[in-house]
Amino acid sequence: MPENSHKPAVFHDIIVSKNDILNCSYESWYSLFGAHAYSRAVVLPLPQEFIEYLESDDFTIPGEKSNPNPQKDSDWDYTPPSRPDPASRFSDLHQKIQETFKSFKYIAPKLNWSAPQDSVWILPGRTMKCSSPSDIYLLLKSSDYINHDLSHAFDEADSVPDKLQYHLILREWKEINPSLEFRCFVRDRQLLAISQRDLNYYPFLEDLHDTLIERIATFFDDVLLPKFGSNSFVFDVYLPKPFTKVYLVDINPFARKTDSLLFTWNELATMSPRDDDVVVRLVTQHNSGRFATKAHSQNHVPRDVLDASMDSSKMVEMLQNWSAMLSKESDETEESD
C-alpha cells in the first residue's frame, strides 16, 4: 500500500503570558495611546461591591424601581417584593457614571477586555449606545462577554495575577462605519496580517488594498511598536475617509480566544513574516451561506424578549419577574424536599 504523501495537520500552540493579557487591558494601553484612540474614555476602578453585583443573579437595576407597573392581565401570578437600590452599595461609582454623562451625551461601556456586544438586543436600537447609568448596568448584567472578563480572562495564560483591578471603561459614543474597521495581527513584533472586521462584501475595499497596508503599517511602526510591551498582539483600527488617519479602537491578546476573522489561528501561528508583504484579507464576493449569520447571533432571544427590549423599564420588569419566579420555584422545591 503506498504511503500517504500528505503530512498530518499540526495544531500549533500559542503561548500567552500573564503580562500579555494585562498589557491588552484597556486602561493599560489607553494610558499609552489615548491620543490615538477613536473615542475619548473615562476609566473607573471598580469596587468589589460592583463586581459582586455583576456576578449576582439579582436583576434589580440601580435607579429603577422594582416592578414599577405590574400589569393586571399579565401571565405572571407572582409579584416580587420591593428590593433596595443596588447603587447604595457602590454609590461613589454610580455618581461618577452620572457625572460622565454630563461630558459624554452617550456612552459605550466595557470592562478591561470585553464590551457587552452580545447583549445589545436588550436596548432600544440594539447598539451599545447608552443614555443613562441604567442602560450601562443592563448591558453589563446581561452579557456573557462581561462574565468572561470576570471569570475567564486568564484561561489561556501561563499564570494568573495574584491581584487584579477591574475597571469600567466609559467610552464616548461615536458612530463608526463598520466597513472601515480592520483587525491587525502582530507576531514577534512583525505585522503579519490584516482582516476586515465586518464580514460583509464591500466592493470599494479592494481598491484600498495598498492604502490599508501603507497607513496601518506606518501606524504600527511609528506608534505601537516603540511603546507596547508585548511582542505578539492583535489590534483593531478604524480608517475613515479620506483614509489619511488611523484611529486605535482596541488591543487584544494574540490568543485563540481572540476572533481571527478571515484567517485561522494555525495560519497566524505559522505564517512567515515578510517585511514587505503584509497579508490583507478581504471579503471578495457576496457569500450569503458563509456570512448570513449576524455577529453575536448566538445571543439572540425570542420575539417577546425583543419586544420588551424596546422599552428599558419593561425589560427591567421582565427580568425582575423572571428572577423572582425562579427564586419562588427554588423555594417551593426546597419545601417539597
UniProtKB/TrEMBL annotation:
Classification via InterPro entries: CDC123 (IPR009772)
Organism: Ogataea parapolymorpha (strain ATCC 26012 / BCRC 20466 / JCM 22074 / NRRL Y-7560 / DL-1)
Family: Belongs to the CDC123 family.
Renumbered residue ranges of the record's region Disordered: 61-89
GO MF: ATP binding; magnesium ion binding; protein folding chaperone
Name listed for the protein in its UniProt record: Protein involved in nutritional control of the cell cycle
GO biological process entries: eukaryotic translation initiation factor 2 complex assembly
Pfam families in alphabetical order: D123
Gene Ontology CC terms, in alphabetical order: cytoplasm
